[in-house]
Amino acid sequence: MELENLRFGTELLKRGFAKMQKGGVIMDVTTPEQAIIAEEAGAVAVMALHAVPADIRKMGGVARMADPAVIESIIDAVTIPVMAKARIGHFVEAQILEAIGVDMVDESEVLTPADEFHIEKTKFAIPFVCGARNLGEACRRIKEGAAMIRTKGEAGTGDVSQAVLHMRRIQGQIKSLKGMDDLQLMKVAREIEADFDLVVECARMQRLPVVNFAAGGVATPADAALMMQLGADGVFVGSGIFKSENPAAMASAIVQAVHHYDEPEILARVSKGLGAAMKGLDAASIPEGEALQTRGW
Amino acid sequence: MTRIGVLALQGDVSEHVLAMQRALSGKGEVLEIRRPGEILGCDGLVLPGGESTSISRQLEISGMAQELKAAARSGVPILATCAGLVLVSREIEGDAKVRPLGLMDIKVDRNAFGPQRESFEADLQVEGFERPYRAVFIRAPAIVDVGNKVQVLARIGEVIVGARQDNLLALAFHPELTEDMRFHQIFQKMLEA
To answer: How far is residue A83's CA from residue A97's CA, in Å, rounded to a whole number?
Structure first.
């Protein structure tokens, strides 16, 4: 081979991988059968986990990384990228996921956190996605090496309101940086506990320097299109597909809705006759301390 | 004015738009193509990186697959990167999940290098380039067989990662993610031809 300077796991490769997911839907799956349904519906990737967030909520107990054997069977079942969740701070779960050939790790608040520190993601060859509720949190995760950010929303509820809140907040905070000089940006960086250079970059680009997806409560095609119109680069759907009455139809409709997010006639057509969406849970009814979004900092 | 359409069904569309704007430096406009009919009137087309299964499905559902085929047949220059390369192929090895458009006489291995941890950057020797080209391969495909009308531009070991056939330029890597504009310059020459 005439190859010189072969390099793996660079920031460009990690962020580049995330960019290839843009305009797509990433679906939570727990079995190879579900992964095949997701792929056939047009998902850009699947997220392997042991139970969808709505069930994790119900089951209680400690939520951990899925069985590597199940994840491997999902990898074998599809040709699209396979992501999997590791607990916040649990770098060994992440090492295991990397070792079995997972394409991206979601360091996720849906699982039970293992540490007060998040994973040092720059040490890995594969990219990570992390949740955020505000610009400070997003910048801290990017500084740790996250190649993709997603809103936390409130997973497993089917209530999109928290994802909307987090997306609006991050966008609003970035907008407010416009026109600020370095001293003002320094003050903001201090207040939101974010790296100064990243705050400068957000101010200049008027967006996060990595891909920003919506997640946490997306349950219908309209929810997905709403998040896209609010500026999401793509959408994660957790319980919304396989807790609905007709997962294949719902999956396909949500993919269509993301592709045609600003075309109401098409949104109307794809929203028809899908059967019941997931039952859901009003995010405001969740007792304080039980919200998943407050995990991590 | 030259009009370049970037197929915007899914993938790294904005990166391609920016890279093409930089290449044209004001001497043309770059549009995102999302709906049937929009391909008509484009002087050049870009098929971006993304997930070929997802893009392929959208092309079929929307009817844009037929428009793309017609544009290619009429000689419109097309730059196809990564997933785009998969889409323009004649045949995909052992994989029925993507319906190739059959625009180029190449056979493709969709995920030739393995999972994301095997994604890489490398200096390529490219036909016609004096200096090596730094290329970014992300879960990249590779060309495993070509017809005799296809000009091979770059290889990695046994497989082909860059090729041209008449008005089609297909790359397994991502010229839109790096600063080196030499492949965009080739595309510009194709536009002028």
So the answer is: 9
Model confidence at A1: pLDDT above 70 = no
- In 3D, which of A108, A170, A104 has the Cα closest to residue A133? A170
**Distance between CA atoms of A35 and A24, rounded to whole angstroms?**
15
Of B62, B147, B57, give the one whose Cα is nearest residue B102. Answer: B147
Query: Residue A216: which H helix or E strand, with range?
Result: none
Q: Using 50 as the pLDDT threshold, list the residues of chain B that sit under it.
A: none
| CB-based contact A20 B53, cutoff 8 Å | no
For chain B, helix (H) and strand (E) counts, in that order, are 5, 12
- Among A5, A79, A98, A270, most B C-beta atoms within 10 A, so best to mutate, is A79
Q: What percentage of chain A has pLDDT greater than the value 90?
A: 88
Is there a contact between B10 and A8 if contact means CB atoms under 8 Å apart? no
Q: Is the Cβ pair A13, B136 closer than 8 Å?
A: yes
Q: Point out which residues pair with B160 in neighbouring strands.
A: B143, B155
Higher-scoring residue by pLDDT: A199, A281: A199
User: pTM above 0.80?
Assistant: yes
pLDDT confidence bin for A3, thresholds 50/70/90: low
Q: How many A-B residue pairs are in contact by the CB < 8 A criterion?
A: 127
User: Contact at 8 Å (CB) between A277 and A257?
Assistant: no
**Whether pLDDT at A175 is above 60:** yes
Total residues belonging to chain A: 297
Collapsing DSSP to helix, strand or coil, A288 comes out as coil
Q: How far is B8 from chain A (nearest CA, A)?
A: 8
Prediction ipTM score = 0.97
Burial (CB < 10 A; 0-12, 13-18, 19+), residue A291, is middle
Chain B residues closer than 8 Å to A10 by CB: 121
- Cross-chain CB nearest to B121 (options A7, A23, A126): A7
Nearest CB to B54: which of A13, A24, A75? A24
pLDDT at A5: 79
CB of B95 within 8 Å of a chain A CB? The answer is yes
Q: Which candidate, B80, B108, B79, places its Cα nearest to that of B94?
A: B108
Residue in A10, A20, A259 nearest the CB of B9? A259
**Distance linking the first and last C-alpha atoms of chain A:** 46
Q: What is the tens place of the pLDDT at every residue in B90-122? A: 999 987 789 999 999 999 999 999 999 999 999
